[in-house]
Amino acid sequence: MSDSNDTVETAYGRLDRAALRQVQDTYDTTILLRMVDDLDAILAEARAEDGLRDMLLRLHGMAHTVINGAGMTVTTGEESLPELAFDLLAELLRIVTMLKGWLVQIEPLEQLTPRN
Q1: Which of 28, 43, 61, 82 sits at 20 to 30 Å (Cα–Cα) from 2?
Q2: Parallel/antiparallel/unpaired status of strands 13-16 and 7-10
Q3: Domain limits at 36?
Q4: Domain count along the chain
């Protein structure tokens, strides 16, 4: 392994030495495993009955009928198109908020890029 004063060569590439010291002192790698668990939960919920996938398909059916004049494929009376859109937006915002938190957690590892 060859090193300069500012970088260190590792099995996974050349890294910024100061940034590496910082993450070695402060970074908890188990957060990455929690992200995997969170992702598994999101995907399971999304594919579950009445999950994100089903909601999107219902919204498409409603919108296709109302906007394009297509035949009805979604039963009426359970929820309105705007109510479903609102619920879908709320679920998507929850997921986006979680993903934004992941960005903050992963950024310190990206900062290992050598500066020179």
Answers
A1: 28
A2: antiparallel
A3: 32-108
A4: 1
